[in-house]
Amino acid sequence: MTSQSALTLPDHTQLPDSDGTFVKNWQEHPQSILLTDSITLVLEELHPDSQYCIGQDSGIYWRLTDPPEKGAEAPDWFYVPNVPPTLNGKMRRSYVLWKEYVAPLIVLEFVSGDGSEERDNTPPSQGEGGNVGKFWVYEQAIRVPYYGIYEVAKAQVEVYHLVDNTYQVMKPNERGHYPIAPMGVELGIWQGFYQNAELPWLRWWDAQGNLLLTGEERAVIEQQKRERIVEKLRSLSAEQLNALGIDPEMLD
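RESULT FIELD:
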């Protein structure tokens, strides 16, 4: 009879959290931060119980292999709804499908080469040395509802939606964005300055087409609003300020 221990599959603490390779380009890190920072308020509203997690260049284990990391894909950014952000009080080392069963809602890959790796549809039956195409894994194995391929060199993002178990390329709306309906947001390209670089960044908008701001951007806007209010108050006389209950010295 097979023992219980023999049936126990490894969890995130027992699987490698890296394949030992370098990050492919320096933009990946700030791009991931930009996506996470600007979507946080939306996710907090969607998940008042805080049951969600975000992966940034983290492994998703979808099959058991030897070595273990051959059975994982490491998207540059992904979001999983309705799962705890930590496990047993510890940050996740990776996301293990056979322990959680919940697939990411959206996976984003940042292209460093020509995009062929991100569009590789090679199934296990045809892959050499156990290699399987990323596109096939996300579509057929993990079954991620939304898959985005972002190419900064082309200033574009290509988004796929899983329909009847097959990825269908999405068409942009009138704003040039791709609606991610379950999140109530849109995904698209924003040309602007972030983290000391002027680039076509991948960003979120709300369903009305308003850009979702980072915490720093929101703070700058609030500071500008305060400065405009102070300037208007300075144009008032001391009597007018006193009538409003404002000490003129407070404006200095």
